[in-house]
Amino acid sequence: MHRFDYAREDTGNLVLLEHVNLTIPDQRLATAFYVSALGLTRDPYLMTGVTNMWINIGRSQLHLPHGDAQRLRGHVGLIVGARESLLKRLRDIQPVLAQTAFGWTECEDRVQVICPWGNRYDCLDPDASDVRAPWSGIDLGMAYVRLDVPTGCAAAIATFYREMFNASVELRDEHGARQAVIGIGKHQQLIYAETSAASPDYDGHHIQIYVADFSGPYARLAGRGLTYGEEPHQYRFRRLIDLADDAPCFELEHEVRSLRHPLYARPLVNRNPENSNRNFRAGEETRRGAF
Fold it and tell me: Of 7, 8, 107, 151, which residue is 20 to 30 A from 197 by alpha carbon distance?
């Protein structure tokens, strides 16, 4: 008899959900929301000009190039620290964002925050997170991206990731709606949740993932004519299909990178928003518990 269930250690081929890319029309408002309100950190090394900004969240990022505002067809789950600190920052920045879509709603285990252009971020309570959730115990990071997909698509999407990427996949039912839950590394998920509500047209936003087996998924995707944008260390695809008959399920551009990509595991600066010029404590400038 084996002493350990080593299958519980498997994570699948997807290693890291590194960034979500959404164009924004105003860096000033983006700074007020992502840095001042959410308490996140603008990357000090890359994209420091006025045409793009990268926002660090533990080991992940939001990429915010300048352009017409894009809307994610779903929402992002973030862990940004204690609720009371978050609420204070939201109240403090409210006058600056008063003429935008900005707002928030307190829920039992999260604060639902709306960005100036209508994108929703669920800021999860670190201490109240379900201990079964893979992000339990994390104080800062991107927990999941949840997409709203048409009814009847979840099973085909689950099969797509299992067969194309050898991903860890689970089908769940939540309040009578089917979900395809794609495991990414130890702490993250990509969730496709069925809904009967009409979905807005796809506007080109994208996500970026790192994979351990890079060539295998590429060969399978390319064999079905799904890949484009081939570069050293990365390629892209956007169509999720039913592998049984090639019927379209959903569109979401994926930037797929290998672990040999020069940006993989680049250390990201994550400041401690509790440490200010008025209460400065030497050695406490950096956030702890970040993923």
Answer: 107
